[in-house]
What we know:
By secondary structure, chain A is mostly helical. Helix content of chain A is 77%, strand content 0%. Chain A contains 21 helices and no strands. In chain A, α5 (79-101) packs parallel to α10. Chain A starts with a helix and ends with a helix. Chain B is mainly alpha-helical. The chains are: A mainly alpha, B mainly alpha. Chains A and B meet through α5, α9, α10, α12 and α13 of A and α1, β2 and α2 of B. Chain B: The chain crosses the membrane at residues 36-54. Chain B: This is DUF3311 domain-containing protein.
Amino acid sequence: xxxxxxxxxxxxxxxxxxxxxxxxxxxxxxxxxxxxxxxxxxxxxxxxxxxxxxxxxxxxxxxxxxxxxxxxxxxxxxxxxxxxxxxxxxxxxxxxxxxxxxxxxxxxxxxxxxxxxxxxxxxxxxxxxxxxxxxxxxxxxxxxxxxxxxxxxxxxxxxxxxxxxxxxxxxxxxxxxxxxxxxxxxxxxxxxxxxxxxxxxxxxxxxxxxxxxxxxxxxxxxxxxxxxxxxxxxxxxxxxxxxxxxxxxxxxxxxxxxxxxxxxxxxxxxxxxxxxxxxxxxxxxxxxxxxxxxxxxxxxxxxxxxxxxxxxxxxxxxxxxxxxxxxxxxxxxxxxxxxxxxxxxxxxxxxxxxxxxxxxxxxxxxxxxxxxxxxxxxxxxxxxxxxxxxxxxxxxxxxxxxxxxxxxxxxxxxxxxxxxxxxxxxxxxxxxxxxxxxxxxxxxxxxxxxxxxxxxxxxxxxxxxxxxxxxxxxxxxxxxxx
Amino acid sequence: xxxxxxxxxxxxxxxxxxxxxxxxxxxxxxxxxxxxxxxxxxxxxxxxxxxxxxxxxxxxxxxxxxxxxxxxxxxxxxxx
Lengths: 482, 80
């Protein structure tokens, strides 16, 4: 136990040190801090983008989903490749607009494309509100990891506090460069650990991966199919679709700084081409989760199964390495999310005069957002997977606005976009918190998106008609040419 | 919409329809692994060749477009 505990806190410290090593001097302005001067090459971009995909949810949540729902966990496999195939086509336009118009955030893009500060602010507020649980998820996951391996809740709380303080410190110092530096370490150690677990756990409990699945096929064949129940075909397809739209149209605000930091659009396109292969790594925790079906009792804590099995199979020092990898999947994405949230607040919500003030508001937001998430993680922890789905269903309501913004000649103005967004978010919040059974197994984000699009489709011609009646010239304003 | 846009649609559709294909969403194994897992992994792998092919088509079409523009410009130059 002492070995694991020492390795845990050493790992947290090491990630902090690597984050600081991302820069020799602190960044002088927000652009340098948030998008690294738009000079990131293919390797840095690769790890930054992978950093968004491989999080605590991947490491712990995927194994847990496979344990509780079998192949239903595979909903997480296709959505990133599908999203990347959309981004493959949009990358050049997105990057060129960002470079020409100086975007740092999602809010900058929407504000500029629709010539509306209100839309930029609304999108930024929604981004912060819906992504804050995602930040909390990483911190909660960090505490859960330590608590599971040490069996001590105070060690879990202490690790959350130390981890959060270090993340805030290196993010303030090094910005996106710090995230990139820690991402290299995170992906390397995560792949090594998952590779070892993929071999060790099925071999130990069932004599190998194939033998394990043959036993599951015999004893629990229902785990190999998507069937009636809470994780049925409707749940699988709609959850996958919402997540794919979220990735493909860059609905999550913390995805923007990484893309804006690319040196040129070719770097982005190359990464989107090869990233689907990297996505196969997701299968590793899923296969480990299947092993738990044969070993653990149904109803065991789903989020902790990967670490529980690791402890049973590996020596203490190797379990320590698993813990370091798991901690990295919490701390590195948390750092990336903090950059996304703080730049939204500084650029699109606070709206202060002067670059220096904006920079300090950004840094203050890093501290405030991480502090709030830490408090929530300590006092209101929640189930990992549900939080992620809520994050996607809320942010995906920005998809129509982002998609139409790519067009050179915009077919709608800001009013229909805002109306659709308002109705879509209202539907998501209502179905998530007040009328949970109404949506059945359909992802609430998709229902919200349908309501959003209906309002947008009705409001767009109404806006045009109104504009024609008031002044014929305003037509030209609505269909502004980029 | 150009023909090369449809190339990545093939793996995307194969992945999205995964739970509705009766020969995929069923018990039994392929190569000692769940059928859904094998199907999903195979089509994820095929996304990369699909995008490489698309890029090639785009480059070819881009080159053709450049050639056409050059020809038109030359022709206009001759006319003038």
